[in-house]
Amino acid sequence: MAHKIVIQYVGDDVSQPFFRMIAYDALTLQLFEPSRFESLDQLLEAMYSAFPDFEQSWFSIRQVPATYIVFAGERELSSTQLSILSLKRRR
User: Fold this and answer.
1) What is the pLDDT of residues 16-67, one digit of tens each?
2) N or C: the chain end with fewer CB closer than 10 Å?
3) Cα 51 from Cα 23, distance rounded (Å)
4) Domains of the chain: which residue ranges?
5) Can you say how many angstroms the Cα of residue 51 is from the centroid of all Cα atoms in its chain?
6) 3-class secondary-structure state, position 16
7) Buried b (16+ CB within 10 A) or exposed e, 55-72
8) 25: enclosing H helix or E strand
9) In the sheet where 68-76 sits, what is the strand order?
10) Threshold 0.90, pTM exceeds
11) Is 34 exposed, middle or buried (CB count within 10 Å of its CB: 0-12, 13-18, 19+)?
């Protein structure tokens, strides 16, 4: 099943910047609870675990204290990958 994934860097108006992953089912548009990663290293670890073909070049990382999109794309996600990425179905 295809899922749309958006990863944001949240860096403005917060004391501690973080990365937020938002995902939804591309067919049903069912939204998942967003997951939060406290550092780039934490996010990269999850991405490498979830996607064997992951490359850091997928990301657009900037050194600015602002909120911006790091990644937006569509991927097939298994239940294992959803779990690794801490994405849970909304009830």
Assistant:
1) 899 999 999 988 889 999 999 999 999 999 999 999 999 888 998 887 878 9
2) C
3) 15
4) 2-89
5) 12
6) coil
7) eeeebeeeeeeeeeebbe
8) strand 18-25
9) 35-37, 18-25, 2-10, 68-76
10) no
11) middle
